[in-house]
Amino acid sequence: MTMTYKGTxxxxxxxxxGLGAEFATRFAARGANLILVARRADRLExxxxxxxxxxxxxxTVLAMDLSRADVGxxxxxxxxxxxxxxxxxxxxAGFGTRGPFAQEDPDVxxxxxxxxxxxxxxxxxxxxxxxxxxxKGALVNVASTAAFQPVxxxxxxxxxxxxxxxxxxxIAHETKGTGxxxxxxxxxxxxxxxxxxxxxxSAAVGIMQTPEQVVETALKALGGKATPASVVxxxxxxIAAGLAQRLPRALTxxxxxxxxxx
Length: 262
Description:
The chain is of the alpha/beta class. The protein is about 50% helix and about 15% strand. The protein has a single domain, classed as NAD(P)-binding Rossmann-like Domain (Rossmann fold). The chain has a seven-stranded parallel beta sheet with strand order 3-2-1-4-5-6-7, with helices on both faces. β2, α2 and β3 form a beta-alpha-beta unit. α3 (about 70-80) packs across α4 (about 105-135). The longest helix is centred in the middle third of the chain and has 29 residues, at about 105-135. The chain is globular, with a radius of gyration of 18 Å.
């Protein structure tokens, strides 16, 4: 089933590039008005102009640093003053760090946790009640295949994504029967700016997918008769995630450590 989302409003974080920009493009094509959130205002404005011209939808741009505290309430207040209600929320913003944890920059680690976990939870809490009342959209939280096992060398990133997966699956259960579709999307290595920020492509495990492929996985899951609480994008990634849950824990940790080495 193809859901149109016509007349609804979707809020997308991390919308300036990669998966966020692809989600924006696909939802605009299905008739959704958009709220695009990221730090880079110029990239957001450029994307907004393209989507308005091509699809005739309303696009609101909010340039924000999601590592700040209370970002959910700040976003909700900004949209309330504009009279905008949110039907769909796509928590896509996030980044990773790499290297032995003892050598990582404490400030960068704090920001990683703030964006990947705190902002996601805060924004979800700010908009979930209204989304449940609307029951016309979806909640999509972007996790990762890193969520399925500890990842030595990317310890904080893997742990944040394990949180996102667990949190989203719990929310999916809590909201059963409400009409709101709740999904944790777990991509593997994807052709985005993630590895530029990370500083190395050596942590790209498995077959690299495109943003189009990953977002198509999410849209198919949302358009099905019953939306799963989580979905892994890509057959090889699904097999790897399944094995990670079945093999002895010590073995999965050792495999993950070897996979992200230089």
